[in-house]
Amino acid sequence: MTASVPSFAKINLGLRIGPLRADGFHELRTVYQIIALHDMVSVSFGRGSGIEIRCKDPRVPTDSTNTCVKTVERAMQALKVRGRVVIEIEKRLPVQGGLGGASGNAVAALLALEGSLQKQLPAAERLRIAAEVGSDIPLFLIGGTVLGVGRGEEVYPLPDLPPTACVIALPEIAISTPKAFAEWDEEAKLTPSTQSDRMLEFSREISAWLNAAQIGRRSGVSARGGGRAENPLLDLVRTGIENDFEKVVFPEYPELLEVKRVLEKAGAKYASLSGSGSAIYGLFDSQQKAAAAAKRLIKQGTRALATSTLTRRQYWKKL
To answer: Are strands 26-46 and 145-149 parallel, antiparallel or unpaired?
Structure first.
């Protein structure tokens, strides 16, 4: 039996990089947001043995280093099943773009495997497997708006926020996340105490936003004051959250900074690098403005797509 599942992308609404941990990872704080752009992942289960990856994009690994293979291996062990698995990945998202494509593929493969077998793992077991395989895989088992802490694998669902128009700019640049972290360590030159202060600052920003959003929902007015309710997602980015990777990526790739500026000039309420890049997104208060901004980028030679954020309910309904 074959099961197919869409594999959605994420963006980062702010990303703080903390000190290097004993396990070799950095302490992180970020807010993940699922968007409607996606790959497609199909899983077939039958007699035999082994896991095969099929993908027409040559940049996608088809060996045991693929996160789908690692995830499906662990899931089969947990489900106590044996057989041959074929995973087909239809790539629509960029590779090494900062949109979590490989991580989303892993969760889609897990869900498609369950569909193919007509068996389901407990939610806690799914999250355990996801966290073992990769730092930003568990977020795709939550969906919507998600707080990520630890190395990013410790995830907490945030209030479901209304869909927001956005543009995803996709420059033809592949950025290595490990390399970006190494450059951060070399160039940021922050003392551990300063890093801790920055992490605490991010936590305070998120806490203040959550509290203000609750007040806004109860009163029916903007969390920032004013006479009408505003989009709480846009209220979040107005807190001043930033992506630390911009400090090391933009100097090396100034063309990415220019893309961000184009989005801002086109009316984006907020624009930022997603993850370590190279994808850059802009949030808009209308689909019309987002579509116009995407056209402007395309005319300038940058691939861009107008899309929307997804609520948690929308996410699971589409899955």
So the answer is: antiparallel
Show the domains of the chain with their CATH numbers: 2-160 (3.30.230.10), 165-315 (3.30.70.890)
Q: What is the mean pLDDT of residues 91-119?
A: 93
Q: Of 166, 202, 186, give the one whose Cα is nearest residue 252.
A: 186
Confidence at residue 297, expressed as pLDDT on a 0 to 100 scale: 97
Read off the tokens for 73. Answer: 């291996």
Q: For residue 226, name the pLDDT band (cuts at 50, 70, 90).
A: very low
**CA pair distance 79, 114, nearest whole angstrom:** 9
Q: Taking CA 90 as the corner, what is the angle to CA 84 and CA 95, rounded to the nearest 5 degrees?
A: 110
Catalytic residues: 10, 136
165 residue type, one letter: A
Output the pLDDT for position 216: 56
3-state DSSP assignment of residue 50: coil
Cα separations in angstroms, 165 against 1, 62, 161: 37, 34, 12
How much is the average pLDDT of 45-59? 94
How far is it, in rounded angstroms, from Cα 131 to Cα 305? 30
Task: Give the integer Cα–Cα distance in Å for 167 and 297.
Answer: 10
Which of 290, 136, 147, 284 shows the shortest CA–CA distance to 209? 147
CA 169, CA 5: separation in Å to the nearest integer?
Answer: 24
How does strand 84-90 pair with strand 51-55?
A: parallel
3-state secondary structure of 19: strand
The values of phi and psi at residue 51, to 5°, are -125, 125
Res. 228: pLDDT tops 90: no
Helix (H, G, I), strand (E, B) or coil at 55: strand
Instruction: Give the closest residue to 99 by CA, choosing from 91, 111, 90.
Output: 91
Whole-angstrom distance, CA of residue 294 vs CA of residue 306: 6
In the DSSP assignment, the letter for residue 309 is: B
Cβ contact 20:126 at 8 Å: no
| Distance, CA of 118 to CA of 121 (rounded, Å) | 10
